[in-house]
Structures are given as C-alpha cells and as structure tokens.
Structure to design on (151 residues):
C-alpha cells in the first residue's frame, strides 16, 4: 500500500472524494419557490389547491398557512419522490359556505421525470366521492404547476 501511495505522489495524481449530485427539487409556489422534500405544495395557480401534511387542517392567517403540517416523504431519490399528504382544496366559492370553504382529502403524491435540477411531473392519487382519482401535473416553466389532466 505504501508503494501505491508513493507512486501516486510521484506521478502528481491527486485522489479526491466525489460528492453526489444534489437531489432534484420541486416547484412549491411558496417560499422557497423550489425545495427538496417540500413541506407543502401549492399546485393550483389561483391558490385553491394545496398539498399539506396528512391529517392537517390548515388555517390561513395573514396570507400564510398555519397548522399545515408536512408532507411525509417516504422516498426522495434522483428519479422520484413519493409522499403521504392531504389535498386541501377550496371546494366552495359560495357565501353559503363561507365559514368553511375548504375540504381535505387524503392523498399520495408522486413526483418524477427529473430534468436538470428539478422534477417536472407530479401525480396526485386520492379518493374523492368514493372514486379513485389521479390528477397529473406538469411544471409550467419556473412558474409552478400546470394541470395536465385526470386519469
């Protein structure tokens, strides 16, 4: 082993540890706008759809969510992320339900298709009205998520 070290030193080679590539981030439409394993995600451009922590019942205070919990990411790799969440959606714009216009649905979120430094696709799996629902989203530039359809 001493000979190998001497040979490396005489040849002028250097051995350095390589660092792993950073994990992909995800558009959150919150602050910070991109994050690895974000706590919450705004997935609609009009503020009516959020992914928050499982079982959370967020409360808006001065334009910020409190008690939103954290998405529970079980996987976050260079290829995909999978987490347990709650869809927090504004389901009623009527004055009749002004006291509680939000509804929560348990969900699983999967992010995938990394390009550069961030994921570009997101599927949200939930049960709404007794039906299994899969909503697919694409990154819309650096602006956040664009709805791609329902599967």
């Amino acid at each position: 082993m001493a000979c190998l070290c001497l040979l490396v030193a005489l040849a002028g080679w250097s051995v350095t540890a390589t660092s792993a590539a950073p994990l992909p981030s995800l558009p959150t439409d919150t602050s910070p706008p991109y994050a690895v394993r974000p706590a919450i995600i705004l997935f609609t451009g009009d503020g009516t759809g959020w992914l928050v922590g499982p079982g959370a019942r967020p409360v808006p205070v001065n334009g910020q969510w409190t008690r939103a919990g954290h998405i529970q990411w079980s996987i976050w790799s260079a290829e995909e992320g999978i987490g347990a969440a709650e869809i927090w959606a504004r389901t009623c714009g009527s004055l009749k339900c002004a006291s509680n216009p939000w509804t929560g649905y348990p969900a699983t979120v999967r992010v995938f298709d990394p390009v550069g430094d961030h994921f570009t696709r997101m599927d949200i799996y939930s049960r709404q009205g007794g039906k299994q629902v899969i909503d697919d989203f694409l990154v819309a530039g650096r602006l956040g998520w664009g709805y791609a359809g329902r599967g």
Observations:
- The chain has one domain: 26-150.
- Confidence is low (pLDDT under 50) at residues 1-17.
